[in-house]
Amino acid sequence: MGSELIRNVGIALVAIAIITLLMLGDIRAWLLLIATIVASLVNMVGFLHLWHVNVDIASAVFIIMALGVGVDYASHVALAFVTANGNSFYSLFFEKNPRNFQLFF
């Protein structure tokens, strides 16, 4: 892969890690969030390598945009678990809370 793409993804991951740690405030949820983001990024880049996709501007933009979308969804799920009352799993799926509605649509 291109060294510039690796540098940009690394900078984005560091920024994401700092901002999500400050916003979530829970170390366990933060670690799971970062692990989810890194796993999805490794999965996507691995498939791009498997399909012999060249690193060009289009694939680099695709990787960075997928990183942003992954952060958006994963951070909403982590925030819902952190702020849930009582049993997190039960509250996430069965409590009538408008904040949890955005997780499924």
Helices and strands, with pairings:
Layout: H1 3-24, H2 27-50, H3 57-83, H4 88-94, H5 98-101
Helix pairs in contact: 1-2, 1-3, 2-3, 3-4
Explain the overall architecture:
The protein is mostly helical and 105 residues long. The protein has helices spanning 3-24, 27-50, 57-83, 88-94, 98-101. It is built from five helices and no strands. Helix 1 (3-24) packs parallel to helix 3 (57-83), helix 2 packs antiparallel against helix 3 (57-83) and helix 3 crosses helix 4 (88-94). The chain has one domain (3-101). The mean pLDDT is 81. The chain is 80% helix and 0% strand.
Q: In a nutshell, what does this entry contain?
A:
The chain has helices at 3-24, 27-50, 57-83, 88-94, 98-101. The protein has five helices and no strands.
Structural class: mainly alpha
Total of domains: 1
Q: What are the segments in which pLDDT stays under 50 over at least 5 consecutive residues?
A: none
Shape: elongated
Distance between the termini: 34 Å
Give me the count of strands.
0
User: How many distinct helices?
Assistant: 5
Mean pLDDT: 81
- Give the helix proportion (percent range): over 70%
Largest sheet descriptor: none
Oligomeric description of these chains = single chain
Strand content: under 5%
The sequence of SSEs as H and E is HHHHH
Report the C-alpha radius of gyration, rounded: 16 Å
Structural key phrases:
105 residues; 0% strand; 5 helices
